[in-house]
Q: What sequence folds into this?
């Protein structure tokens, strides 16, 4: 119960800080919010939410909010692999190591938006199938995790059915 209170306080502070920051003009590219989370404020209001919302829920599965986890040590909230802006190296298991947490959050949101655009007919179930190793988006249950359970968790955190199209959610 205590963690729920802490999460509520952090979200409330984030919302307060976000609403108090004016439009700085200039660059319209979403950048990190006040806590380093991705700021997708420009997303279409007809959609459910943002790639940043998905990243937040996904980061819980990856242990980002627990001290000492790879996600935290490497500034990589969702344990991405590969090359992304801000990557300064890779762990022995291939997890990207980001220079800053803002870079990690932005890469997570970018990956989610990329996948939503590349696979507009994929649900959260398909997306997490790919995340866990099936390039065709089929369910996976392996040493990395259970894609159905992860999709159900993230979708549940976002208040949608896991069969919801990721592209519909993030726009």
A:
């Amino acid at each position: 119960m205590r963690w729920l209170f802490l999460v509520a306080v952090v979200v409330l502070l984030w919302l307060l800080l976000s609403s108090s920051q004016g439009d700085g003009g200039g660059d319209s590219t979403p950048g990190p919010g006040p806590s380093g989370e991705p700021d997708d404020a420009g997303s279409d209001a007809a959609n459910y939410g943002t790639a940043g919302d998905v990243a937040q829920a996904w980061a819980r599965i990856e242990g980002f909010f627990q001290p000492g986890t790879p996600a935290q040590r490497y500034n990589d909230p969702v344990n991405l692999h590969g090359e992304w802006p801000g990557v300064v190296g890779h762990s022995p298991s291939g997890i990207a190591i980001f220079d800053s947490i803002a870079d990690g959050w932005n890469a997570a949101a970018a990956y989610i938006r990329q996948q939503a655009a590349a696979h507009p007919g994929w649900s959260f179930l398909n997306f997490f199938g790919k995340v866990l190793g099936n390039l065709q988006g089929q369910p996976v249950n392996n040493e990395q995790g259970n894609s159905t359970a992860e999709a159900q968790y993230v979708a549940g955190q976002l208040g949608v059915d896991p069969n919801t199209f990721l592209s519909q959610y993030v726009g």
In short: The first strand starts at residue 87 and ends at 90. The radius of gyration is 16 Å. Residues 45-170 form a domain with the Lysozyme fold (CATH 1.10.530). The CA atoms of residues 86 and 99 lie 5 Å apart.
